[in-house]
Protein 1
Amino acid sequence: MSVVLDALAQGYGTTTVIDNLTVTLRPGITALLGPNGAGKTTLLRTLATVMPPRNGVIRIDDIAVDGERSARRVRDRIGYLPQDFGFDPQMTAADFVTYAAWMRGVPSRQWRRAVDEALEMVDLTDRRKSKMRSLSGGMRRRAGIAWAIVGRPRLVLLDEPTVGLDPRQRLQFRKIISGLGDTVVVLSTHLIDDVGAVCDRVIVMHGGAARFDGTVAELEALDREELPGHSPLERAYMHLLPEGEQEL
Ligand SMILES: Nc1ncnc2c1ncn2[C@@H]1O[C@H](COP(=O)(O)OP(=O)(O)OP(=O)(O)O)[C@@H](O)[C@H]1O
């Protein structure tokens, strides 16, 4: 799986959110960091083929995704968990994940196995028959993660997947995504601990551009002791913000 963004521009109406972004995403876990409004969700939605690029090119497995026709060719390779995902509260957890398998073009004879595997990965096997409305917030988010990974799509896009998870569930989440193997995983987060623990690569977005693109160790090397923050990664992140935003 390869995902190439070449001079990508994206926005809403007259607002430009992403401007001239060029990156190649490879198998492994990439974190998108950046302040509120930096464009992380917009980038994930664009990668998920929800919005065609305003300018520039997205190439998924060498297919240029520039409209509905080309998007249809790649959608079954993509698992996308939006920040606020909707569901029918009457659906069981298994139905919810089966719906994703169907949407992703998993053949019906494989649904049962694929759904069982996804629910097992997020530790919801014993809740497979529970209605979505009866699950706790953290369980729903884990069902959402199962939604994104069922059928093993090669590109997995997760928008703030650990919001609402308790500490143990966050550790479980890290285990799940570390076990996805040969998959391009892109997640947005504000939790720098998660980045340090599981991500291979970090892209820090600000002002429509990638202000940093490198490994966690390379980001950590930008640590400046004089900046606010409780860890080298937090201080390195602060260092990447414009000067006016570096104080608290
Ligand atoms: N549907 C929309 N219509 C108009 N503007 C939008 C829309 N969605 C987002 N925006 C604007 O685009 C910019 C980027 O928003 P986006 O949600 O991508 O940021 P983000 O980095 O995901 O933020 P957060 O950390 O708060 O989730 C913001 O200025 C936002 O107000």
Protein 2
Amino acid sequence: MRRVIHSPHLPTVGLGTVNRIQILIQQLDPELPLPRYAHHDDAGADLLTAEDFTLEPGQRRMVPTGVAVAIPEGWVGLVHPRSGLAHKHGISMVNAPGTVDAGYRGELKVLLINTDPTQPVSFRRGDRIAQIVFQEVAQAVFTPVDTLPESVRGAGGFGSSGLTTTA
Ligand SMILES: O=c1ccn([C@H]2C[C@H](O)[C@@H](COP(=O)(O)OP(=O)(O)OP(=O)(O)O)O2)c(=O)[nH]1
């Protein structure tokens, strides 16, 4: 349950407390620290590489994290790139965001890619390579219909509202 804090300095808004979910974790590589949140209110917990490696320009690699998790049914783990690595080194994830299903019990892996055209990037065991965000999800019950309900957007997409703020 999120708490609503009423501050005299702010209009009435819901200032959420951090929601927490217990995730059972198996340390396949016990000397590696657990994933952790860099700040108490971060959405993503940093995943670490279990090995040293270098990514040449354009190279991709499936990187082991040394942990496996049991995500409760109705939840998902989404593996996202780290913006600092992207900004400073051009490191991203080929499949961003990676989807970790509730039933998956294997080692978490991160599919990194070096998008820099010229610079190799080296990682040491224990470096933070990605972040995992846990979210509640619903499965769809697909219900075929002849016509969909109307909406304001309709079929407009792919830039239908304009591509820039000045156009
Ligand atoms: O970045 C990722 C993405 C996925 N996985 C693991 C957890 C996930 O549950 C499993 C399968 O992923 P996904 O469903 O994306 O793969 P797929 O290509 O559809 O293969 P599968 O047929 O095994 O589902 O691989 C990771 O460890 N890291």
Protein 3
Amino acid sequence: MRIHVVDHPLVAHKLTTLRDRRTDSATFRRLADELVTLLAYEATRDVRTEQVDIETPVTSTTGVKLSYPRPLVVPILRAGIGMLDGMVRLLPTAEVGFIGMVRDEETLQASTYANRLPSDLSGRQVYVLDPMLATGGTLVAAIRELIGRGADDVTAVVLLAAPEGVETMERELAGSPVTVVAAAVDERLDEHGYIVPGLGDAGDRLYGSA
Ligand SMILES: O=P(O)(O)OC[C@H]1O[C@H](OP(=O)(O)OP(=O)(O)O)[C@H](O)[C@@H]1O
Ligand SMILES: O=c1cc[nH]c(=O)[nH]1
Ligand SMILES: [Mg+2]
């Protein structure tokens, strides 16, 4: 597993407003969308393409287009939905699958309550979206499911990561074709498994505390 932290002043600027407790849901949703677009630029650096011949108004030339099989984008419900539009805007040919997961607030164990994925992901590049990589339990389980279905290149796009979660992913997914792209790696987790300084509960800040 490798991790890439996107070091860019626009990312840092938007992330600071996202962290601010005074930022309302509408602004939070817009900033999450904008941040994903910036992270997606890095996350798709190795997206597969193929050569195509085209005619410009002036002459013939050779270019590239996104190749088949199409990349798969998988937001992890609920909070990952806030990252979906920003990602597919940059990957117009992408197919979208869904995994619904929730973390028990006491035990911090993640469980899966919904799964709508292609059964065969052989040879597919997959982009998993979840704003928060805290203990890592959620992403490890989601990525194991994708690799189990044959995905051979998985990139997790997250807004914030905790060092504890990065370590867990490195240990649990050692040797797997996995990349994490993050806007920042924060200091630590607190005793409730929240990222510090973090931004609070991403799902609640996007969608309320239902
Ligand atoms: O790395 P972990 O310790 O597993 O924690 C991270 C997970 O926790 C949050 O989801 P939550 O369970 O709050 O669900 P939600 O998206 O519905 O709010 C977050 O969106 C991640 O999916
Ligand atoms: O800080 C955290 C940790 C897990 N999930 C969140 O939404 N926020
Ligand atoms: Mg939540």
Protein 4
Amino acid sequence: MDATALWQRYQDWLYYNEELGFYLDVSRVTFDDAFVAEMTPRFAKAFEAIDALEKGAIANPDENRMVGHYWLRDPDLAPNEDLRSEIVNTLRDIENFTQQIHTATITPPGEERFTDILSIGIGGSALGPEFVAEALGAVNPPLQINFIDNTDPAGIDKTLARLGDRLKTTLVLVISKSGGTPETRNGMLEVKAAYERRGLDFSKYAIATTGRGSKLDKVAQADNWLATFPMQDWVGGRTSELSSVGLLPAALQGIDIRAILAGAKQMDAATRIPDLKSNPAALMALAWYHAGNGKGEKDMVILPYKDSLLLFSRYLQQLIMESLGKETDLDGNKVFQGIAVYGNKGSTDQHAYVQQLREGVNNFFVTLIEVLTDREGSSTEIDPGVTAGDYLSGFLQGTRKALFENKRQSITITIPEVTPVIVGSLIALYERAVSLYAAVVNINAYHQPGVEAGKKAAASILNLQNMVVDVLSKTGGSLTLAEVADKVGRPDAIEDIYKIIRHLDANGRMVAIDGNAGNPGTMRVMAR
Ligand SMILES: O=P(O)(O)OC[C@H]1O[C@H](O)[C@H](O)[C@@H](O)[C@@H]1O
């Protein structure tokens, strides 16, 4: 296609939302009219499925749940008055609570005001809050946010060390929809112990965001925590950023949560239109389908040319891969669906892996995100008539062009600025695109059965660890690995046992190794 034809294609397919100042360009994905004609009826069905979902149908059949994240930003759409008022009241409670913290009506014991937030959560209970904090957090917010999103002891120590003495003015948000996620529970217990070591009463600093009646909810009630915010069962973890999960930390940081919700609501309205060409989420899902042949054959590389959007790809990784990565479709056929997502930011990544994108294996398509406004205020001229922002813009255009010349496809999103409204709209855009894509490829986007396998396996390793320690403590001398495995009654698990012992020994806990751990056959093991 020559330059004139490409320019025509660009204009033919350009989506523009005037209210949001949002552009979507799918012209560099090479679908043709025949493909669009073939997909149109499939999208018509997908629009119907999403419409039913928005009206409260059980869209997650396995878990027998409604899928209601769309109601969060337009409570009037909730299927009944109870749900509507729950959304409205939660928002009101978040705002009231935030105001009490900001005005120092609620204070930490013996201190003037809260200075920091420590948010403990993982997956959907961390990625959205982390993304929004990075995208919208001010340099000097009313409360500075810190995260623990893992059960890594060294990571926890680093975060606690960074807080140092400010722990006594830190509000702890423990976020877990299920209220039983081990990493989050461990983080909470570690942090609680840190408060106790300083003689501070943890419950005066702790807030739970969780499902009603969950283990976490029970702990928060029993210990009389400072506050609890509900997380509804019809909001999935990876679509929970605009529920109390994301809104509470954002509001506490002084971010305009009403504006985030308004942006999402506007994008919801735009992506509800049941017409492929005038619906940006449908256009995006169409482009994904074409690029990956409806089977995820190409990875999605997310390249925002704006530092504050650095964590968008990580956020989208869960949203897209946990939603679309499924073994079976809704009819039970093995389909092994999914789209792999990665990326950081441009132009930084041009100096890392764009070499491979341009010349190496052609197994991806790129989504470039362009932000029109460079910065607040005016810019220094780096060269005569040229600013740093001109460079950034030039790099984006150049990369898009260079990739396309080499038959690498791309989508380009253009936004005016990174504001709460726009961030809300981006979240809503991708949520809808995922819903539509899943409907088109006939999978359940709202469950995550595969995650359970890893959790169960981890639990069984911890169980095995207890058995190993027990056997060794009852044995006087040393044993070979094979003997330990025999005594535990799990000769099949000798490799797991070896790794458990190596880990405990490295931490100087309970067991010790004699011999060379690099040559497991020669090792002898004993209780410490
Ligand atoms: O919010 P929680 O219940 O603690 O869940 C945190 C995460 O746990 C699991 O790994 C799920 O697969 C995720 O979808 C979820 O976001």
